[in-house]
Write a structure and sequence with these properties.
The complex is a heterodimer of chains A (423) and B (370). Chain A is mainly alpha-helical and 423 residues long. Chain A folds into three domains: 49-241, MetI-like fold (Orthogonal Bundle), CATH 1.10.3720.10; 243-321, no CATH class; 324-355 and 367-422, no CATH class. Chain A contains 19 helices and no strands. In chain A, helix 14 packs across helix 18. The radius of gyration of chain A is 30 Å and the shape is extended. Chain A starts with a helix and ends with a helix. Chain B has two domains: 7-226, P-loop containing nucleotide triphosphate hydrolases (Rossmann fold); 239-363, RNA polymerase II/Efflux pump adaptor protein, barrel-sandwich hybrid domain (OB fold (Dihydrolipoamide Acetyltransferase, E2P)), CATH 2.40.50.100. Helix content of chain B is 23%, strand content 35%. Chain B is built from nine helices and 20 strands. Chain B has a six-stranded mixed sheet, sandwiched between helices. Chain B has a five-stranded mixed barrel with strand order 11-12-13-20-14. A five-stranded antiparallel sheet of chain B has the order 15-19-16-17-18, with no helix packed on it. In chain B, strand 9 (206-211) and strand 10 (214-219) form a beta hairpin. In chain B, helix 4 crosses helix 5. The relative contact order of chain B is 0.12. The chains are: A mainly alpha (423), B alpha+beta (370). The A-B interface holds A 171, 173-174, 176-184, 187, 191-192, 195-196, 277-278, 282-283, 285-286 and B 53-55, 74-76, 80-82, 84-86, 88-92, 101-102, 104-106, 128-129, 131-133, 136, 149-150, 153.
Chain lengths: 423, 370
Amino acid sequence: MTSDKIIRVSIWVYLGIFFAYLLGPLVIMSITAFNSPSFPRATPWECLTFEWFGALFQDERILNGIKNSILVGMGTVVLSVAMGLAGALMLTQIWPKLRATYYTIIIAPILIPGVVIGISTLVFWDRINRMLGLGADSFLSNGLFLTIIGQSTFIASYCMLVLVARLQRYDMALTEAALDLGATHAQAFRKVLMPFMMPAILSAAVLAFLASFENYNTTTFTFGEYPTLTIELAQKVRYGITPAISALAFMIVALTVFFALVNEANIKRKAMIADARKDATVGELAGKIEVPGLISRNPAAIALIVLLIGTVTVIGSAMTYSPDQCIANVQEQKRLETEKRIQELRDRRAKESAEKAAAEGAEGGATQTAPKPSNNSGFGGVFAPNTLQNEEDGAADEGVAGSSNNSGFGNVFDPNSIGNDSN
Amino acid sequence: MSAGVGVDLENLWIRFGDFVAVRDANVHIKGGDFFSFLGPSGCGKTTILRAVSGFLEPSEGNVLIGGNNMKGIGPNKRPTALIFQNLALFPLMKVWENITFSMEIAGASAKERRKRADELLDMIALPGQGDKLPSELSGGQRQRVAIARALCAEPDVLLLDEPLSALDLKLRQHMRTELREIQKRVGITFIYITHDQGEALTMSDDIAVMRAGVIDQIADGKTIYNDPATAFAASFVGENNVFRGKVLEVKGDQALIRTNRSGDLLSRISTANQGTMKAGDEAMMFIRPEALSLAPTGTQGDHFVTAKVNHEEFEGNSFNIFMEGDGGKELKVAIPNHGQSFDDHSGQDMTLEYDVNNAVAVPAGELAAE
C-alpha cells in the first residue's frame, strides 16, 4: 500500500521534472515576451507589455526572414515530398537484393552533416552554373533556389521514411484491382494510391516544412540574397537580442499548440463518427449521422476553445492596455535607485581620492575601476570602454548605471531602449 | 444463357528464372462455363490466372480470350475481371464507389453510377448498404461487394482467385451456392482457382487438376472423382485408399495387381490409362473408404482385403475403421450408419470386400500431401 503510494508519487515527480525540462525553456521564453525590460528576461518582473509584438511586426528584417522562410519552406515541401514519394515507391518496386543498399544510399543524406550538404550544394551548383556559361545572377545561383535544393537533399529522406511507413501497409493488389477494372497506371495512382498515401503525404509535408523552417547550417551557405528567419535571428544575436524574438517564439509555440489541438480534436471527432457509423442503421447512413456531444466528450476540442478564448482576450486587452504608467513608475524607481548609487559612488570616490591624496598615489583610480565591469559578464565587455568612461567621468547616464546593476547583458542596448521607454 | 466467351491456353509455359511455374498447359474453356483450377498451394494455378488477367506475360504459348490472342494486351484492356484472394476492395471508397469504379474510369456521371450500384447491390442482396465503407461490412458482405465490383465492369470472363478462403466454413458453403447462382444468372465464363476440392466439385462444370505446374487431368467433377487419370488426382480429390503394386495381368479394362501387402487384387483401369497400362508396370490402385464393405473374416479372393484394425471412430453418418495400410498410410473404411450395432474390432484382423468397378488403377506416381 505504502510502496504503491511511493511509486505513484515518484512517477508524478518524475513526470514533473521531465516536463519541466522539456517545456521549461519555452515557458520562460514566453514569459519574457511580456516583460518590459529590453533584454529578454523573466525576473525581475517589471511591467506587463505587448510592445515586443509591436516591435516584432515593425522589424523589417525579421518580417523579411519569415517571408523567405515560408517561401523556402513551401518550395522544400513540394520538392521533398515529391522526391520522397518517388524514393519510397522505388523502394517497393526495386529488386529485393538491391533494396538494402538502395535504402542505405537514400538515407545517407540524413547522416551527412548539414554544413557539408550546404557547402557541397553551393559548390556543385556553382559548377553547373559555370558549365552552362551563366552569370552570377542566373537562376541557378539564386539563393532561394539553392536553399530549396540544398535543404531538400536531406529533407526528402525524412519524407521518404514517413512515406515508406505508410506504403508498407499498402496492398499492391489494390493497384492491380484498379488496373484490372480498366484504369490506366496514372489513374490507378491518382485514384487509389494517392488517397491512401494522403495522410502520410500531409505528415511528410508538415515535417518537411518544419525541418526547412528551423534549418540553419545548410541554409547559411546557400541563402544568398534571401536570408531566412533562422539566418536573421542568428545575425541579430550577434548584436544582441530583444524580447521581440521571444514574442516570435511565443507566437510559434501558440500556433504549434493550436494546430496540435485542432489535429487532436479532429482525430477524436473522426473516431466518434466511426463509432456512430458502426451503430447506425442503413437509413441513418443514407442521411447524416448525428454525433452526440461533439464537444462534451472531446477534451482536445475544449482545450482548443479555451485557447481561442484566451487568444482573443489577450489580443483584446493588448489593444486597450497601456503599460506606460507602469513603465514610468519603474523608470522612476530605477532613476531613484541609480541616483542613490551614484551618490554612493561619489561618496566612495571622494573618500578614495581623499585616501589617495593622503597616500599620494597617482594611478590608483584607473586600476581599481577597470576590473569591475568585466566581473559582471563577458558580454558586457563589448561596451566596456563606454561604461568605463562613464564611470570615470562620474556623470554616468542614469540608464546605463541602472541596468548594469542588474546584469551585464543589459548594457548591450540600454541607451536606445531607455530612450524609447521614456518617450 | 448466352454462349459466352471461351478461353484457350495454348502450350502455355511460365517460368520465373529457373523455376517453371506452369509447364505446357493446354486448356480449352467453353464460353459460359464455370471452370475450376484445383491444386495444392504452389502448383501454379494462380500464375495461370494472372496470365489470363494480363498481370503476367507467358514465357511461351498463348492466352486466347474469345479466340483473340491476348499477347501484349494489358490487364486494363482485357475483357476480364479478377476477384482477388484478399478481395482488394478500395478501403477509402464507399461501397457504391467501389462497385462502380470501372464506370468512374469510363467517365460515367455520379448519378448513373449510383443507379447501377443500387441495381447491383440488390442483385447481391445488400440493398441500401452503398454508403458504408468496406471495413464496416462483414466478410461475406465484402465478398459479395467484390463480385459486384467485378460484374459492374461487364467482363466476358470473371476470374476468381480463391475468393472464399478467408471465410468461415458455414459462410463458405453458403457462398458456393450463391456464386454458382450468380454465374448462371449472368451467363459469363467463370474461371475459379481453389485448393478446396469441395468448392471445385460443387460449383464447376469442368475442373483442371494441377500438380507442380502440370495439369494432370481436365474433366467434370464426377469423372475426376470416379475415374482419376493420375495417382495425384486420385489422392488429392476426396479421400482415397492407396494400394501399391505391380501389374500382373491386363484383361480388357481390368488389371490384376500384385499389391505389396494385400495379395493379388483386381481393379478397373482408369479410362485415361486403358490401353497404355501393361503387365509389369508399377501401378497404384485406389478404393474410396465408402466403396469398401465388411466381409466374413478370412475370405480369400481378388476383391478381398484382410488387414489388422488400428482403431475405430464414430462420425455420425458413418463408422470409420482405420486399418494397417500400405506405405505407412492407414486404410480407411466408412461403414454407413443405419442404426446397426457396431462392435469394437481394434487389434483384430478384418476382411473387406469391394466391387471391382469401384477400384481404379493408375500408373504409380506422386501422391498428394496429406
